[in-house]
Amino acid sequence: MPDASPVVPADRTGPRVFEGTPLRTLDEDALLARVLPLYPTGPDLQVPPGDDAAVVATSPRTVATTDTVVLGRDWLDEWSSGEDVGHKVVAQNLADVAAMGAVPTGVLLTLVADPEVGLEWVLDHARGVARACRDARVAVLGGDLSSASAGVVMVSVTALGRLDVDPVLRSGARPGDVLAVRGELGLAAAGLLLLQQGRADRHPDAVARQRRPRPPLADGPAAARAGATSMLDLSDGLARDAGRVARASDVVVEVEEAALAPDVDRLREALGEREARDCVLSGGEDHALLATFVPGGLPAGWRRLGSVRARRAGEAARLLVDGRPVTRPGWDHFTPGG
Amino acid sequence: MPDASPVVPADRTGPRVFEGTPLRTLDEDALLARVLPLYPTGPDLQVPPGDDAAVVATSPRTVATTDTVVLGRDWLDEWSSGEDVGHKVVAQNLADVAAMGAVPTGVLLTLVADPEVGLEWVLDHARGVARACRDARVAVLGGDLSSASAGVVMVSVTALGRLDVDPVLRSGARPGDVLAVRGELGLAAAGLLLLQQGRADRHPDAVARQRRPRPPLADGPAAARAGATSMLDLSDGLARDAGRVARASDVVVEVEEAALAPDVDRLREALGEREARDCVLSGGEDHALLATFVPGGLPAGWRRLGSVRARRAGEAARLLVDGRPVTRPGWDHFTPGG
């Protein structure tokens, strides 16, 4: 996260985290009575939240994943409303479910917050969660509320999905496969950069993508049915995530830079050539899907980015862009500068 | 949580949270490489953590629940080792799964920590998680790591379970049913009180129960098969949790104080009569199971505490102990003094 002074763009809506009625003025039941009615049920919910646990209809195989966002690390209050934050943390978890080839069925949600956080922000956040769940026909299966020390606000989501096909792993790419993407590259990172620079008005679509990613959820199971050999959610950027596919599959993944031209074109005017290319290659949080298919097997809506080949003698499993390695490191949670 | 000066009991083991090698000196992959091998797989794990999501074998119905613990609120570093904390947060989640009548199959685990937290504490914590999971034949399905501001350490667990019978809800108690418990009452609260008073040596079993609860997981599904009409995990104390059963089922739950004598007896010498009774009636974190059965239907190991009757005209659905209401309020996450 940036240390530049935040600038509030005109389109920021919703209460700030510490505005309004402090949570400490409500007891837990009163807070739940406000929040729970906002959450959707879904077609698979059999016992709703409120008992020891919820019950959800499942197939013989269930997919499960979890992801957490922290105020000041994963979002800044100046740039993202509660609704944005709620939408995003759900969307990024559902993208991981879809990237296995599964259909999302439910989420569990934990809010750990300073008691000075405003009820209004919490309700705004719940509306974002609800909208992202409703869009995906996913139920809120439960959650937890806990208080935390001054300034701390974090949201943790676990998402479940129903797997009706074999799971598509990142380790399944084979020499000869085509590498393809479903969705745009670099928009979310460009949006973050513009927010950091106080120039959100230069590319509203990019800023919107940063705030509320829209992963192509239905395309995950569809790709699985179409025979995708590997697949993952692009959360950490093409360079890092395609490198993961290469290493997990023990192959070399070759991206053709020309295939990235539409993505770079989309960002060039707002960012300039160098930053646009950096966002497309290394920018995270797009939550597009990256997959490999046998040649000729691309489902509708997918775009070819390159191909997969065997490692040569002594060559590492890795990503190459027009034959060259990508050196930008990506980012990390615990090390400084990460 | 108490504000008394903490006293370190002699049996505290394991590194303190902020001792040793700070997390900031490792990158995320290096940290995962240390932690993940500690976690058990289980019979139901089909795709382990490391891809976008894990895959777990499920029945047509899956139970899901989540619970979070925060340093300084839910545990004190002076009293609980990382292994204690890891064991406890898993056990309390699995207890919720069992209380639905389900068999726990997997957990997802999130650690949000100040980068100054020591690797040694994290590994100690992972060993506690692993042991609690292994004891229950439960897999670690995944997790997330995130950094947080100074002093913040929290662990969030989501637990999943396989439901092979109809779920047992807290709303199913019927007039004429017998109220029963599987497990002891008040031990965990007594352990907390003794830790607060610096007298942990007065009742090591109670202190051990506070640090590492051992919910009777197999008795949840067994009670469901035996026809339990309602069931819940005793996490917030008999008074509060039995009151929940009464309200959810719209009945009056009558506890006979004489039935609590074995629990009070167990604590009287260490705590005195009044505190012992308070712990048994209102102390949380025992993670025993509370259930109702038709008369004559108690499975082995369950102990009768009282009975269920219909509300009289104008009477509220509530808990009565020897005919009298219990006024102690229990505790709450966001309100002061909670």
Architecture overview:
With 338 residues, chain A is of the alpha+beta class. Chain A has 2 domains: 23-162, 60s Ribosomal Protein L30, Chain: A, CATH 3.30.1330.10; 178-325, Phosphoribosyl-aminoimidazole Synthetase, Chain A, domain 2, CATH 3.90.650. In chain A, 30% of the residues lie in helices and 23% in strands. Chain A contains 9 helices and 13 strands. Chain A has helices spanning 28-35, 82-98, 119-135, 187-196, 204-211, 219-225, 238-249, 261-271, 273-282; strands spanning 45-47, 54-57, 61-70, 103-113, 139-147, 153-162, 178-182, 230-233, 252-255, 289-293, 303-309, 319-321, 324-325. A 7-stranded mixed beta sheet of chain A has the order 8-10-7-11-9-12-13. A 4-stranded mixed beta sheet of chain A has the order 3-6-4-5, with helices on one face. A two-stranded antiparallel sheet of chain A has the order 1-2. The longest helix of chain A has 17 residues, at 82-98. The relative contact order of chain A is 0.16. Residues 1-8 and 329-333 of chain A have low confidence and may be disordered. Strand 3 of chain A pairs antiparallel with strand 2 (54-57) of chain B, so a sheet runs across the interface.
